[in-house]
Amino acid sequence: MKKTFIIAAAIAGALISGCASQPLSTFNVFHPAELNGLVASGQYLQKTDNFFVINDSSSSMAEPYHGSGYPAQPSPTKLSVEKEILNRINLTVPDLNMTSSIRSFGFGSCLNWGFTRLNLAPTPYSKSLFGSGIDTLACASGGSPMINGIEATAKDLSNTTGNIAVLILSDGHELDANPYAAVQSLKQQYGDRLCVYTVWVGNQKDNQGQIVLNNLANIGGCGFSTTAERIADRVDMAKFVQNIFLKPGTPVADCSMLDDDADGINNCNDRCPDTLKGAHVNAFGCWIVDIKFDNDKSNIKPAYYTELDNVINVLKHNPSVNIEVQGHTSNTGTAAHNQALSERRALAVKNYLSNKYVHADSALTARGYGLTQPIDTNETEAGRANNRRVQLEVLK
Question: How much is the pTM?
Fold first, then answer.
């Protein structure tokens, strides 16, 4: 009989604080900080695989919000601020593969006449779907059965894998029952996988509720508690999101700023990353003997002796390396003809070096690749000129 009376009273209270008296607020445009770059660079890594929200939609959240950081027209209710916080989180979260869910607690028509409502079932996260779930938090009514929301969330999480972040937004005001045991049970069920975060969305008269939310976060062991005001700024919101979803990683160095072999070509563009010090390289970072042969010829003109003597100097400073002298051609002519021509040109360079430097003969091998390994396009004369080359490759 007592239970029937309580339910009847709750229904009556819900009708008194109906949705019609809760106008929507329009907030100033929020410009989120960009976090995708931190993830792409490796500076931060994803640490949360499941993001489950428990939102207070009880009647106290229909009261005006007196805190700062959320200017709106008309003046916002506490529920409106909860929704705005979730919207700002949604805008700030980087592109992550995770599961998300939203559940509310209260009573009355705002919660389909239940003590808790699953506003967004567990689903792969996307900004649009999560935003649609936020939109269903249309009004606030009834008592504050937070314990029902926590117990239902424990079931919602049953099919999850990986790390879990449970976020509770509430004023903590006049809860129907002590939720500590429910959070302790949730923690016992999911262990180190689960962290609890809380955001106090309350006014000065709700200060006792802030203590409750602090204690709930402490039970989780790895989360923390904050207030709506502390995360109102875009920078503070970014830090809040980072702390929930990301962990420090090892930054990936910008290859355009690196030149490991010190040949003047950055690592992004260097197709030959192990060039010996002092070697002449082309725009692709490859050790090229800059010799121009006459058409269909393989004899070396005296004008290019200085270029070959530079190769000998590099070899003298690296006596232990073995080098492949590679002949390459453009695609003008038949494959068979270009193969033979590339072999003759590679051998001509090898012979010159061997004659000038006694140790070169054992350190060098000559090989023709014909037209099979272009380094540039064959659609232009400039590209074909780059492909007609003798390249020196350090053998591993």
Answer: 0.64
Q: Under 8 Å CB-to-CB from 62, ≥6 apart: which residues? A: 17, 21, 22, 77, 78, 79, 139, 140, 141
E strands along the chain, which residues?
A: 26-27, 44-46, 50-56, 72-73, 99-105, 116-124, 164-170, 194-200, 225-227, 246-248, 288-289, 323-328, 364-368, 389-394
Q: CATH: 3.40.50.300, 1.10.10.10, 3.30.1330.60, 3.90.1150.10. Which one for 255-394? A: 3.30.1330.60
pLDDT per residue over 44-84, tens digit each?
Answer: 999 999 999 999 999 999 999 999 999 999 999 999 999 99
Ranges under pLDDT 50 in the chain: 1-21
Q: For domain 24-248, which CATH number applies: 3.40.50.410, 3.40.50.460, 3.40.50.1970, 3.30.360.10?
A: 3.40.50.410
